[in-house]
Amino acid sequence: MLLRINLILLVAFALGMVAISLIVTSTLQENATREVLAQAGLMLDSAAAIRSYTETEIDPLLDDKMATAFRPQSVPFYAATQNFLTLHKEHPDYSYKEATLNPTNPRDRATDWEADIVQRFRNDTTTREVSGTRDTPMGKALYLARPIRVDAGCLGCHSLPSAAPATMLARYGNEHGFGWQPNEVVGAQVISVPFASAEANAARVRREVLTAIAAMLVSVLLVVNASIYVLVIRPVRRIARIADQVSLGDTAAADFPRGGGPEVAALSAAFNRMRKSLDKALQMLGG
Ligand code: HEC
Q: Which UniProt keywords apply (predicted)?
């Protein structure tokens, strides 16, 4: 009987483990993606903070120096890229780029997949954010992109070369980064965040949860086995042995035991009563 109960329990537990494992895996996967996306969003926000700091605090300081030589340090988008390049040295799997179709600085030129994203922003001006996953040489990464839009303040440097400061032309030439139109989306800020650490975390939590559940099921199995043995199997075996002796006419056989679960105890009591009646009946016959 124990074998059969154990088999049934094992099958039920195995099915339960598979179901739990599927649910846990997909939940953790969703969490990991959400976590990485939140990280990417925070990084894009910090790029915006760097830009506004540069515009309000650095640019005014460099105003007079700009007359003699162009200081890219005063350019908000330059500041953000430089900051993230420093971060990239420490964390090579994180990257930030101001991917631009027609950039002033060639390092900012959009690659194929980045140009596709910029094109999406250009085609649909209501799109505020685009995200997705990509395989990189450093492993799977999530990218998050937001459009870069031109406003009136940009035209002094990015419209016609003739409108741009001579010092800027001296440094960057007059071929790239011009001809931008007001309100045009010229590029996208693209941040790339690795999945590796979030995925490692998810795998660890999954392992811990499944191990804990497996341990719980094993304890349940042990407790069920011990209870069935003590409450049913052992007393029923004794009852069977005594009933055997009684059936062979052994009047010295012990009383049926009172232990075990209530049903087994009731059975024992019934056997004891039956045995007494049987004894009496035999005595009457013999007497
Ligand atoms: C004072 C001139 C100036 C103004 C004003 C200016 N930029 Fe620029 N911008 C530059 C220069 C110079 C660079 C290249 C910096 C570098 O070396 O990376 C640049 C770079 C950029 C880049 C990175 C891609 C590229 O072209 O290399 C973006 C995007 C950009 N600017 C957008 C803007 C926007 C949007 C505005 C208006 C909100 C603006 N800029 C205003 C001078 C300017």
A: Membrane, Transmembrane, Transmembrane helix
Taking Cα atoms as reference points, which of 178, 149, 145 lies closest to residue 161? 178
Give the strand pairing for 130-136 and 139-149. Answer: antiparallel
**Which of 64, 78, 104 most suits a substitution to test ligand 1, by most atoms within 8 Å of the C-beta?**
104
Residue 287 has pLDDT above 80, yes or no: no
Domains of the chain: 23-194 (3.30.450), 203-286 (no CATH)
pTM: 0.79
- Token pair in block for residue 171: 């440094």
CA–CA separation, 87 vs 242, rounded Å? Answer: 82
- For ligand 1, residues with CB inside 6 Å are 72, 75, 77-78, 98, 100, 103-105, 108, 148, 150-151, 153-154, 156-158, 168, 172, 177, 187
Closest among 259, 257, 255, 261 to 279, alpha carbons compared: 255
Q: How far apart are the C-alpha atoms of 55 and 57, rounded to whole Å?
A: 6
Q: How many CB atoms lie within 10 A of CB 44?
A: 19
- Is-contact 168 143, C-beta < 8 A? no
* The predicted structure's pLDDT at residue 201: 92
78 CA distance to ligand 1 centroid (A)? 7
Ligand 1, atom 21, lies closest to the CA of 77
Closest C-alpha to ligand 1, atom 12? 72
